[in-house]
């Protein structure tokens, strides 16, 4: 009975080396083929499909702001850089960028919704519904009665939350909360649409809200008693507040000293 002769070790090594070289050569050919395909005009970016919020931007503004910052084709374009380019466009809060075979990008935009101004008068930015401060052309703001908020850096979210809590309180006295400020020392100050200034003091939001509620519940009665319009109020007292009423004086007619009524 014939027995198969064992394959010599050197032959095995030669066969293995040939196989490895063949696979490497095939891999190189495949890589060259893929590289050639990726450089063909078929995959050159030719269109960007934009969906979502486009109230403040159009094709012209997006093309001018984004296209110069894009490079590469369908396969090589950096989606992270493309996203950053779209989010750098005014009014764009967030962009989701995806490839769409064979030569397009699909973009879904979310724009800022401006609900307040932020900063000091004369140097203001905008606040969106998430409590984020952003910069944009204020001439594009649709509403002309946005409140002015202000506070330390990074506190826009807290100030916006406080505004939403306090604004309905002043509506009970037919007033609109036009400004709300958190000072660097933690004190709250408000201004109504008729110019009246309110010192709300410091403390938790619940404490500030409680003072404002007490003030709104009794202001009409107190003001009607003295027959004047509110000029300012100090709500920092533990069990009451101090008022300054326009046109109410403590001496003879013509004296400009205003009377303070304490409740």
Derived from helix and strand composition plus strand pairing, the structural class reads alpha/beta
The proportion of strand residues reads 25-35%
What's the mean pLDDT score? 86
Would you state the CATH class of the largest domain? Alpha Beta
Using the 3D structure, state the CATH architecture of the largest domain: 3-Layer(aba) Sandwich
Q: What order do the SSEs take from the amino end to the carboxyl end, as H and E? A: HEHHEEEEEEHEEEHEEE
**Overall form:** elongated
CA gyration radius, whole angstroms = 34 Å
Map the helices and strands.
Elements: H1 9-38, E1 47-52, H2 59-66, H3 79-87, E2 92-100, E3 104-111, E4 114-120, E5 123-128, E6 133-134, E7 148-150, H4 156-171, E8 177-182, E9 188-192, E10 197-201, H5 205-226, E11 229-234, E12 242-249, E13 258-262
Parallel strand pairs: 1-3, 4-7, 7-8, 10-11
Antiparallel strand pairs: 2-3, 4-5, 5-6, 8-9, 9-10, 11-12, 12-13
Helix pairs in contact: 4-5
């Amino acid at each position: 009975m014939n027995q198969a002769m064992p394959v010599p070790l050197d032959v095995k090594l030669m066969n293995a080396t040939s196989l490895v070289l063949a696979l490497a050569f095939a891999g190189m050919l495949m890589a060259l083929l893929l590289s050639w395909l990726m450089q063909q005009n078929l995959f050159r970016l030719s269109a960007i499909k934009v969906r979502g919020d486009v109230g403040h931007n159009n094709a012209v503004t997006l093309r001018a702001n984004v296209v110069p910052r894009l490079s590469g084709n369908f396969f090589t374009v950096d989606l992270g850089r493309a996203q950053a380019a779209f989010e750098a466009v005014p009014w764009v809060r967030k962009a989701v960028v995806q490839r769409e075979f064979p030569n397009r990008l699909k973009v879904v935009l979310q724009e800022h919704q401006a609900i307040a101004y932020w900063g000091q008068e004369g140097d203001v930015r905008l606040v969106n519904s998430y409590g984020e401060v952003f910069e944009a052309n204020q001439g594009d703001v649709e509403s002309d009665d946005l409140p002015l908020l202000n506070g330390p850096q990074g506190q826009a979210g807290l100030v916006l939350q406080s505004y939403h809590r306090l604004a309905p309180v002043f509506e009970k006295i037919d007033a609109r909360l036009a400004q709300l400020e958190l000072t660097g020392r933690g004190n709250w100050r408000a201004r109504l649409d008729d110019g009246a200034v309110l010192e709300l003091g410091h403390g938790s939001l619940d404490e500030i809200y409680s003072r404002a509620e007490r003030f709104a519940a009794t202001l009409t009665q107190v003001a009607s008693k003295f027959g004047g319009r509110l000029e300012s109020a100090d709500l920092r007292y533990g069990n009451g507040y101090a008022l300054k009423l326009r046109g109410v004086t403590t001496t003879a007619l013509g004296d400009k000293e205003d009377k303070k009524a304490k409740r």
